[in-house]
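Figure 2 data, in text form.
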Amino acid sequence: MTDYSESSHTSTIARSAGTISFAVLLSRLLGLVREQVFAGFFGAGYAYDAFVVAFRIPNLLRDLFAEGALSAAFITVFTDYRNKQGASATWKLAGNVISVLIILVGGITLLGMILSGKIVSLMSPDFSLVPGKHELTALMTSIMFPFLLLVSLSAIAMGMLNSLNKFFIPSMASSFFNLGSILSGLLFSYGFSHLNREPIIGMAVGTLVGGLLQIGIQLPALRKEGFLFAWHLDLKDEGLRRIMRLMLPAVIGLSATQINLFVNTFFASSCVEGSVSWLNYAFRLIFFPIGMVGVSFSMATLPVVSNQASLGNLDQLKGAYVSTGILSFLLTVPASAGLIFLSRPIVSILFEHGRFTAHDTLMTAQALSFYAAGLFAYAALKIIVPIFYALNRTRYPVIGSFLTVMLNVLFVVLLLEPLQHCAIALSTSLCVLINFLFLSVVLYREVGGYKTSYLLQNFIKIAITAVIMGIIGQWINKTVLTHVPATFLGELCALFAAIIGAIVFYFTTIYYLNIKEVDYLWTRAMARLKNRRRRS
């Protein structure tokens, strides 16, 4: 593979990922505001524990019918149709998939609403020990179950737009979800409080409003590309069957992930009250860099590798994966270090307001540190799994997923008593790391090798730099705290100084470590800057 090909992959994927990252940044910031609303108004405990479990139930299926199996399988077949069969057949396939989805997921949604009470009893049996907690969780579950259908349709729209190299609008969709759920949720919460009902029920209703906005924002862009939905149901269609064949092993594999979530929820609900909330707040902070890097690069890479797999360009596919892996490590490894070394001040600044106490901060920060240890592997999984879909090697992610189920149960059982809720966070990180290593080895064998030594050398460079960066950031934070008032503003200044100092150190050091992707992106950035200056 030529250097030109590698540079081309780096540029294409980085440019697309950069576009997505900007939209994802806005979405994650609004998501963070959403979590701050929950922390300030509901704290960690009775009401928010109930909401987390209620929202998690449709989310267990969301990965199957939205961001997970369906999305990857649909983009693979949709891209192949667009390359080989033209626009008419491609739009017809999309209409057929949407029609089937409405019937299938609509039926599951209705069944979930009817059986919400029994599902809550299965997932969180200890909630029934607290008066009213089981009933509140079941009510919000039935309210939020239709979100599953909305987010599934949104994923199809996103898949079509991404396959057409339209990334910004679909990436903005989740921002509209967060904005809609925050504003309407607070409005409905105010109304429920005046009806002498739990105000958090309003946030459940707001979730549906956000889901409607999430799909609605993408429809004009699809119409502009020439798609107009028409009901079309053909279960014998070869394209639909290809998607189902790709989905089946992926669904089986993702079911393992859902089993892990079920196990984690079950054990967390048996810990002290607030454990479910602490874990959720911590994982939401992990979601920020995962979305910025893992999801962005995954969305940018999938159309590229699907196209290369469709055309049989295996060498270029391997080059795309290596370049994307390095770019991912460059951002997620320092994010892991930063969240570990600065976990407590970060949680304190973001959440310790209103009903969120100092004890909640400590418990959430501990969970955050354990989750952060596996952050880079979590983001890398987002990149490597879609490559197996593009290569039609879906059985391997299935095997990896079920391997993590067994390991997760083992780790949680062994660690729960000494670590309590932190055992779940640590187990999650360990399982994600093992799964990533397993899939990396399998991919190496399936594609005839790729530049593992190059990946490992650069990972070590990045990891050492990131650890030193974390230590420096922690030292700056503690030093500044001794010179500023013990107020929110003082703590904010100390954290800001620590983050800025850590970032400056990291990127300055990385620039001199002779990492080809960094050199190439820097050269491209400088060239663009010179061109702009000449034009002006």
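Caption note: The chain is about 85% helix and 0% strand.
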